Amino acid sequence: MNAAAEQVLQVENLHAGFGQRGRAQMAIEGVTFQVKKGRVFGLVGESGCGKSTTCRSIIRLFGGSPFVIEQGRILFDGKDLAAMDDQQLAGIRGRKISMIFQDPMTALNPTMRVGDQVAEIVRRNHVGLSSTQVREKVVGLLREVGITSPERRFSAWPHELSGGLRQRVLIAMALSCAPQLLIADEPTTALDVTIQAQVLRLLHDLRERIGMSVLLVTHDLGVVAQHCDDMAVMYAGKIVESGSVAEIFANPRHPYTRALLNALPAHVDPEHKLEPIPGEPPAAGQYPAGCRFHPRCRFAIDRCHNEIPDNEQLTREHACACHRKEEILW
């Protein structure tokens, strides 16, 4: 099987931002990664690094915001999503690419019963089903995502469900058309630790059963280690390191990746304290010259202040954008 056939999604040199074409404020620049068929790809980084913007740009879910793709391609099923208009994308959204969001407490319509909300999606994507068939399919989806007593939950209002159950309802909606790609934008952020584990396990089981690919956005490297096959680390609108999870965790080459790992309790020697990363990511449009991480990097040299590092392939499964990637050994 050739490389293209193994990939369900290819994002190539994507430059996108908010505003009018030619004058937009870039939120992401030069973003490149691939999601392989049947695998989970983790997109990692602190808040404000461009992870959610990258995912929303794939199917252009920005509401009324003036969002523009200035450059790059988003290849899905052999077609460039970046070149499609809204009508063409409507045939992709929900049917072939679905998305679940990070806050289940606000994602559902509080004025509609849970079953009716799922049924609305089912009717839209399965034209010709009778009311009885729609109800049966909705109940089956609720059961598939682990909701007990799905017949009773069908008539429940969103406020009657816990955060974990609401997230399961959103997953049921996303899976209603058995998509090829599921984008999960920090799906467990608003949930407690126990429910987080249950939801992530559910996504893992569904991925294996259905065979779909998953693009998982998270700031939690522990989640990436347990649930992802491949990953990319994002900082200030750029990919700074990418490759297989096993390779990057065993041999991180970018100072930002290593700083994130040093802030992960399981990765730190019990006799040493966690190492916080000083400062915070720059806001869009306020990026420093040179490497964007250099103001927070203890390994920065003069070159880092002035010259943007190339994202170079180190091995078949590992790429990194750092001037000192060859000389700094962890």
From TrEMBL:
<dbReference type="Pfam" id="PF08352">
    <property type="entry name" value="oligo_HPY"/>
</dbReference>
<comment type="similarity">
    <text>Belongs to the ABC transporter superfamily.</text>
</comment>
<dbReference type="InterPro" id="IPR013563">
    <property type="entry name" value="Oligopep_ABC_C"/>
</dbReference>
<keyword id="KW-0472">Membrane</keyword>
<dbReference type="GO" id="GO:0055085">
    <property type="term" value="P:transmembrane transport"/>
</dbReference>
<dbReference type="GO" id="GO:0005524">
    <property type="term" value="F:ATP binding"/>
</dbReference>
<keyword id="KW-0547">Nucleotide-binding</keyword>
<dbReference type="InterPro" id="IPR003593">
    <property type="entry name" value="AAA+_ATPase"/>
</dbReference>
<keyword id="KW-1003">Cell membrane</keyword>
<dbReference type="InterPro" id="IPR003439">
    <property type="entry name" value="ABC_transporter-like_ATP-bd"/>
</dbReference>
<dbReference type="InterPro" id="IPR027417">
    <property type="entry name" value="P-loop_NTPase"/>
</dbReference>
<protein>
    <submittedName>
        <fullName>ABC transporter ATP-binding protein</fullName>
    </submittedName>
</protein>
<dbReference type="InterPro" id="IPR050388">
    <property type="entry name" value="ABC_Ni/Peptide_Import"/>
</dbReference>
<keyword id="KW-0067">ATP-binding</keyword>
<dbReference type="Pfam" id="PF00005">
    <property type="entry name" value="ABC_tran"/>
</dbReference>
<dbReference type="GO" id="GO:0005886">
    <property type="term" value="C:plasma membrane"/>
</dbReference>
<feature type="domain" description="ABC transporter">
    <location>
        <begin position="9"/>
        <end position="261"/>
    </location>
</feature>
<dbReference type="GO" id="GO:0015833">
    <property type="term" value="P:peptide transport"/>
</dbReference>
<keyword id="KW-0813">Transport</keyword>
<dbReference type="GO" id="GO:0016887">
    <property type="term" value="F:ATP hydrolysis activity"/>
</dbReference>
